[in-house]
From TrEMBL:
Gene3D superfamilies: Vaccinia Virus protein VP39. The lineage of its organism: Bacteria, Pseudomonadati, Pseudomonadota, Alphaproteobacteria, Hyphomicrobiales. It holds the Pfam family Methyltransf_11. Residues 69-160 form the Methyltransferase type domain. InterPro entries: Methyltransf_11, SAM-dependent_MTases_sf. One of its GO terms (molecular function) is S-adenosylmethionine-dependent methyltransferase activity. Transmembrane segments: none annotated. This is Methyltransferase type 11 domain-containing protein.
Amino acid sequence: MAIDASDHITETNRNAWNAQRFDAWVAAFGSPEAEAAKIVAEPERVLRRLSPYLGDVAGKRICNVQGSHGRVAVALARLGAELLVIDFSEENRRFALALAKAAGVTIDYALCDIMEADNLGRAHTFDVLVLELGILHYHQDLDRFFATMRKLATDRGMLLLNEFHPVQRKLFWADGPHDYFQTDLIEADVPNPDIAGASLGRCLYRFWTMGDVLTAIIKAGFTITRLEEHPDWTDSTIPGSFTLVAHA
Ligand SMILES: C[S@@+](CC[C@H](N)C(=O)[O-])C[C@H]1O[C@@H](n2cnc3c(N)ncnc32)[C@H](O)[C@@H]1O
């Protein structure tokens, strides 16, 4: 894909993720102070999908890739991990840093396109990379994305990917392509925690097959050690999400 097309897609998505996003999180979670109090009281609630795979995180260096509002990062920091969030939304960063402050922890939050993470000077720094729910469909070059993940991870570092299942997104999601093998970009709303609310903006998504995802991870030099598929939250007869563990 030409560089300018890829830049256009990234800018479209960045604009959508900056539109009224701080206010959207406040409407969904309450103020950063209110949400921080809940995370401090029960960090495991936020981490319930990740904890079974993570083990003890105290003292670990963790990168929360596209970590959004920072709830996962703050919960991990409360459990003693050292956190860097990488995300390109300033509004997300504002919420995350206020959340961390109110929770009494420090997290680092790099505002950048994840594809430029090489330039952060953090090569081979992280024991664990955490990627949660709604990551891969922002990218048009999955090989380059996972090559970037490999550069961030230490040797033997863990990649923990909890993601929407390709079958759910491609075949069953209302705005999806309804064709498992379709490769075109799809324009659809940026996630809005108020599902009945007005659109906060439009994103350009590229949905990947399970084969695309696994192949890109292996090509980047990771060894996959676990892949679990989980039932969809509304229709338990189809896969809704999956969790993949791999090591560099
Ligand atoms: C659906 S969220 C991630 C899930 C997160 N657990 C949540 O609940 O919000 C997707 C995140 O990816 C970020 N993002 C999308 N494309 C990106 C890119 N190219 N570089 C950095 N961040 C990106 C968005 O800003 C957003 O915070």
